[in-house]
Every structure is written in structure tokens, then in C-alpha cells.
Amino acid sequence: MRHGNKINHLGRTFSHRKAMLSNMATSLIMHKRIHTTVAKAKELRKFVEPIINRSKEDTTNNRREAFAALQSKEAVSELFNHIGGKVANRNGGYTRILKVSDNRAGDNAEMCYIELVDYNEAMLKEAKGPAKKRTRRGTAKTAAPKAEKKEEVTAAAEEAVEEIKPEAEDAAADSEEQA
To answer: Phi/psi at 96 (nearest 5 deg)?
Structure first.
């Protein structure tokens, strides 16, 4: 029975699985996005997120722990020099899995992209775009038409005053003539 064994072995021995995850993590760190199967991506997320979390604090011990997992000096330096600074204010969730609609031709395996969240420029632009300032009275959308209506009302009032002024001056002149 496999009670409590939640790890996906991916059909590999321990050493092969460890080497594969290390290589995939190195590729993810160097390229910021890789194309793989959903099962491997889910296991890679469990493997790489603690390593990325260590990169927030640049100490010798954290670098050694990262190197023990990745076995690549270039990946460790990229992780601590660039990625660690970008994820410093994030509490977790450093990776994103984006499923692809087409399956692999040979074995029909579900395919996906796994990427570092802070490096997808298209999604970062979308996230920044719709964020609008909210007020206590309502959303920014409802506040703008009210302001436009107010301007229209004041413009209409000014036009009405302009039309009434000559009539009021004529009435004042008539009353002076009668007196």
C-alpha cells in the first residue's frame, strides 16, 4: 500500500528522478520558462520553489544548499543575482503552470509551460492595466460619469445665465424709464 507516499516517482529511480529535476530546475532558472509535461511540472514546482525561497537571502549557506540541489554554478549565480531580488517581496508562488491544449503526439501526455511568475512580461502588463483607483463611494467607473454630468450641468447653467442677462438688463432699463 502507498499510504502517505504522495510523491510522483515519474517512472524513474531515485537517482534518475533527482538528476532530472535538478536539470529541469537549472533550465527553468536560466531560461525562465520551459515546456514539459504537467506531471513533471507539478513535481518541478515542489523541487524549485524552496530553492527560489532560499535565494531571497544571499548567504554562503543558502548558496551551498542551492548548489547542492542544482549542480550548476551559472544557475546559482543567476538565481541569487537576478531572481532573488525580483521575488524578494513575494511570499510564495514563484512559478506558474500554463497548460497547453494539444497533447504530445507519441503518448498523448498533457503538455504545459512552467515559468517564473515575475518574468512573464505579457501577464505583468495585463495585471497592471486594469488596476484602477477605487473610492469609498463606488468604483472609478461610476465616479467618472458623475463628474462629467456635473460639468455638463454647470456649462448649461452658464449658458442659461448668458441668455437671461440681456432680458434682465432690458427689464431693469424699462423699470428705470417708468420711474
So the answer is: -135, 135
